[in-house]
Amino acid sequence: MTHPTVCGPNLRTFSIESPLAAVFIIRTIGGYMAGLKHWAAFAALGLSTFAHADTSLLNVSYDVTRELYKDIDTAFIADYKQKNGETLSVRQSHGASSAQALSVMQGLQADVVTMNQPNDIDLLVERGGLVPANWRTHFPNNAVPYTTTMVFLVRAGNPKNIKDWSDLARPGVQVVIANPKTSGNGRYAYLAAWGYKKQQGATDQQAQAFEKAIFKNVPVLDTGGRGATTTFTQRGIGDVLVTFENEVALMDTGAGTGAGGKDFSAVYPSVSLLAEPPVAVVDKVVDKRGTRKQAQAYLQYLWTPAAQEIIAQHHLRPRNAEVLAKHASEFKPIKTFTVEQVFGNWQKAQQTHFADGGTFDQVIVDKN
Predict the structure, then answer these.
(1) Contacts of 151 (CB under 8 A, 6+ apart)
(2) What is its main location (predicted)?
């Protein structure tokens, strides 16, 4: 689902859930690119109805960062006004990461993209040159302002006694995971499970069999991470949700009452995949709109102590060492591995596992 919102004077919001839903229906019947083109045109038309300040920016992001960027935007707008005397507004568009990247490629006028995996930004390099090939060098930490990892959310009392990745493959356990074909969240979950098995000494064939056992337990594949959270917490489907640590933290109620009057708790597996969500300025858009200065400042702001504090408050692991140390008690230690360590790089992981005919397609074909 995608929800553009705007921060700044004359706050207005609207929802365009149904067009994105239509995109995925169209994709299913083989018209994916055509559907995205139509959705992008709709989005561009709808976004033009927003009230403008002196300058407006559009941040196209993945779907579990709504709350984060709402607070970032408010702080950035005030900071930029104080330093430059210019009133900005920042609009947000959120949805499944890869679908968001494709809609930018098809014409959605994003000044900046804040995705959850580099492949989605590389797509904008490869198709149309919207982003320069060296985008990783434009900001610190390879353009990754924070990290997170994949953990579990279980129901009150953890009735299925879920402790590690191996428990997701047990018969009788229902697992909620976003679709790896459309969601970076889902890809991180899939690769985390694969990496867990490989670190135990498994062959690729054994790792794929492990994935088959897990996905046999998946009752529904939502298009994005927030949709998967809704399925688990509000629709009452599943025994365990696999998602980003920050999303789990929002729902981890301990002894309290969580979403929909239900109780949920976080479970940290023995090892997981380090998630490194990158950001980039969309060069062709900012040069066309004359917003390069503001877009660059917006993303650079993410590394300031003030923004890093907001990032930590939203349960994401900040890059700033002092801010991270201040919040150390809020982040449970967990052993992590990177995509590069297990899969070589994101391009290889994408081609092997998520391209047409890759291991994920083979897993799903054999799901039932």
Answers:
(1) 242, 243, 244, 245, 248, 266, 267, 268, 269, 272, 334
(2) periplasm
pLDDT digits over 115-165, tens only? 999 999 999 999 889 999 999 999 999 999 999 999 999 999 999 999 999
Fold topology of 148-275+333-365: D-Maltodextrin-Binding Protein; domain 2 (3.40.190)
What is the torsional sign of CA 350, 351, 357, 358? negative
Distance (Å, whole) CA 90 – CA 300: 15
Nearest to 7 by CA among 97, 110, 91, 133: 91
Specify the 3-state DSSP secondary structure of 282: coil
* CA pair distance 155, 262, nearest whole angstrom: 8
Closest CA to 120 of 185, 204, 165: 185
The H-or-E segment that residue 5 falls in is strand 5-7
Give CATH 3.40.190.10 domain extents, the chain. Answer: 5-145+277-303, 148-275+333-365
- Name the DSSP letter for residue 13: B
Q: What is the pTM of this model?
A: 0.83
Write down the CATH number for the domain with range 5-145+277-303: 3.40.190.10
